[in-house]
Design brief:
GO terms for molecular function: 2-(3-amino-3-carboxypropyl)histidine synthase activity. This is Diphthamide biosynthesis protein 2. InterPro entries: DPH1/DPH2, DPH1/DPH2_1. By secondary structure, the protein is of the alpha/beta class. The protein has 2 domains: about 5-110, Diphthamide synthesis DPH1/DPH2 domain 1 (Rossmann fold), CATH 3.40.50; about 135-190 and about 205-290, no CATH class. Helices cover about 30% and strands about 20% of the residues. The protein contains 9 helices and 14 strands. It has helices spanning about 25-35, 35-45, 65-75, 95-100, 135-145, 165-175, 200-205, 220-230, 270-275; strands at about 5-10, 50-55, 80-85, 105-110, 120-125, 150-155, 185, 185-190, 190-195, 230-235, 240-245, 245-250, 260-265, 280-285. A hairpin with a 2-residue loop joins strand 10 and strand 11 (about 240-245). The longest helix has 14 residues, at about 135-145.
Length: about 290
């Protein structure tokens, strides 16, 4: 499906079947991967009746199935619009396209740079990319064993769902191997965002520093220094970093250079943002075979 920009596609009941993919994903898989129950709970709790569903090109094939599953979970009462060919890069919430169909909220699917919205609330569904926890766990511990530095685990947002399982597996393997590793994990900054026009920066639960509207990267060293300074805030005895939808803390006695960064995710703009921002850090990468 390719629509002119900005555009939205509404699925009235009479047209739903004709827009179904030839081989639609299993509905149970759709419900889990696209977090249908959690999304419906968010929309019901705020009584939204006109909702824009924003998909990047690579996920657009699942849009009809997601819209059907979400409508079924909501039980009617809300009109859902699928947006394609967004006004900006797909990592940003397309408020322009959403305003054209008078949406009250945008549900954003896939990778996001988490740039703050101005007028509309947003709900983020990052997806659940498969990850081999066992292989990743052993690779992570190998990196920790071979390095004298503490390890900070960062990830693409589509792998954030696997971090709790990875933590548990790593702790169990450390105990069985009698290995004492210092491993820290970043967390997802938020999955809901309020518009900046109606809330304070803290209430937005968003990070506007460290990334641009197109996941842009610093053009020179001065820009890079500004980027690093802006994505870090000192809070008491810790420095809090917000970058690419992730947040983590380090002691004020330490620098990011003191850490080995372990990246779980694809070699994409999100990884480039991390690598160029912290370009003095050692970075460990799992094998591509860890990803489904």
């Amino acid at each position: 499906i390719r629509l002119s920009s900005p555009a939205a596609l509404h699925f009235p009941p009479s047209e739903r079947n004709s827009l179904s993919p030839v081989n639609p994903p299993a509905m149970d898989d759709i419900s889990s991967r696209y977090e249908i129950p959690r999304t419906a709970e968010f929309l019901r709790g705020r009584a939204y009746t006109r909702v824009a569903l924003q998909f990047p090109d690579e996920l657009l094939k699942d849009a009809p199935a997601v819209a059907r599953a979400l409508r079924a979970e909501l039980g009617g009462g809300a009109k859902l619009f699928v947006m394609a060919d967004t006004a900006y890069n797909s990592c940003c919430v397309d408020e322009v396209g959403a305003s054209n169909i008078d949406a009250q909220c945008v549900v954003h699917y896939g990778h996001s740079c988490m740039s703050p919205t101005s007028n509309l609330p947003a709900f983020f569904v990052f997806g659940k990319a498969p990850l081999d926890i066992s292989l990743c766990c052993r690779s992570l511990l190998d990196c920790s064993r071979e390095s004298s530095k503490p390890v900070l685990v960062l990830c693409g947002l589509e792998y954030a769902h696997a971090l709790d399982d990875l933590k548990r597996a790593t702790m169990e393997l450390c105990k069985s191997d009698c290995q004492n590793s210092e491993i820290h994990y970043a967390e997802v900054l938020c999955s809901e965002m309020s518009p900046s026009s109606s809330s304070t920066a803290e209430e937005q639960c968003s990070q506007s520093n460290g990334s641009t509207h197109n996941d842009g990267l610093p053009a020179d060293n001065d820009d890079l220094a500004t980027l690093v300074n802006n994505c870090c805030n000192v809070e008491g005895s810790t420095r809090k970093y917000n970058l690419g939808g992730l947040t983590w803390r380090v002691s004020t006695d330490e620098k990011m250079d003191d850490y080995l960064l372990y990246w779980i995710g694809q070699d994409n703009s999100a990884f480039a943002n991390i690598a160029l921002t912290f370009n003095k850090c050692d970075i460990g990468l799992p094998s591509s075979s860890f990803y489904g």
